[in-house]
Amino acid sequence: MKNTLLAIGLLLLPGLIGAQEAVKENEFTLSMQLRPRAEYRNGALTPRSEGDEAASFINNRARLSMEYKRSDLSMKVSAQHVGVWGQDPQIDSNGRFIMNEAWAKLNFGTGFFAQLGRQTLSYDDDRILGSLDWNVAGRYHDALKLGYADKAHQLHLILAFNQNKEKTQGGTYYYDGAQPYKNMQTLWYHYTASSSRFNLSLLLMNLGLETGDATTETSHTRYLQTLGTYMVYKPESWQGQSVQATFYYQTGKNKSASSVSAFMASVKASCPLAADNRWVVSLGYDYLSGDDGKDSKVNAFDPLYGTHHKFYGSMDYFYASSWKTGAPGLQDVQLGISFKASPKVSMQLNYHYFATAAKIEGVKKGLGSEIDYQLDWNVMKDVKLSAGYSFMRGTGAMDVLKGGDHSRWQDWGWLSLNINPRILFVKW
User: How far apart are CA 167 and CA 388, in angstroms?
Assistant: First the structure.
């Protein structure tokens, strides 16, 4: 603990010494968001079986955010109400209005800062730590972030310690339904080349995962480490499109005290088909290791707190929902094409072929194919209309590992309106 405090002090010291510049003008921003989304689910998240009826609903996010900035201080407070249309009575005395962001950022000069409170942690391509903005509630962490940034280099140290309630003595059992980890220490470094065509990130995360007995409130904390890299290269002739590569390795122990040795790797290239960049084609491959059921060691990679909806198919069969049997990992071959019809209208079509990473006895690896289509229309300033449709053609292996009946038609459609005005006040 003393070594940690000393490291924090050394990190902040240069900034504290140099924080003598005059405070610059104030800036206040008020933003509002109303985002209703209608969904038709006929096999989304998990495959449907014979006789299962489709579900339809409209969820909604109503968010109000206020942000204050000056040269040495930033603060943001954001509260939201989320839910499904019709779930609350007309006269409701128990609303669910929660604080999704409440943080302050202290700028010490010469690139050093500290940010503490409830905040979104979104890094690189959102693979391990992501905002999860697709989810109606989003995702937040209660944490302290210490950092340094200049034109080429960024370094962040993220520290978190979670508890379920105030205690007078001893530790606590970590109850379900709260934050998924007891403590976290994450170190993230990012390098941007002078040409801005190459970016490199390194991440090291140590998670304390707590289990125990709820009655006696005794606890046991296991530590899981995730380390890896994310790289982006933008060829000069590709009009801003890129080649991206990711690799992460996990070791340590999970909540069950089982030893972990797992990894994931990903590569994706997006290339324009013409100089105007209106048509873009992409090709990618993801591999997340899995368990074959023959080893006591855990070989299934856990992508933790990333935005899984962004990567493994829009129907969220993988990592956004659980397996019916085991954890066989995933292979995902992706082919996509996007088209910008006008400055206001764009669309994209993506194909995924899914297979398990581990070979499960008696089950073929192939899981099936998914096609996702999305249309976005900027109706006017601060107003965006989006719609999507997806379908999955699964295999017998999908029935065994995810459930459902692959001979049934599995599809999903949605329509969303995002109204998000922002008002800026400056100079006082």
Answer: 48
DSSP 128-180: SB---TTSSS---EEEEEEEEE-SSEEEEEEEEE--SS--SSS-----TTS-S
Q: How many CB atoms neighbour CB 173 within 10 A?
A: 16
SS3 358: coil
DSSP labels for 281-323? EEEEEEEE----SS-SSB-----TBS-GGGTS-TT--SSSS--
Q: What is the mean pLDDT of each run of 10 residues along the chain (428 residues)?
A: 47 45 78 98 94 96 96 97 92 83 96 98 97 96 97 97 81 76 97 94 96 80 97 92 97 94 98 92 98 90 97 96 94 98 97 97 95 98 98 96 95 98 86
How far apart CA 397 and CA 409 sit, in angstroms, is 16
Phi then psi dihedrals of residue 15, to 5 deg: -70, -40
pTM of the complete model: 0.90
Do the Cβ atoms of 3 and 11 come closer than 8 Å? no
3-state helix, strand, coil in the chain (%, to 5): 5, 55, 40
Helix extents (H) in 45-99? none
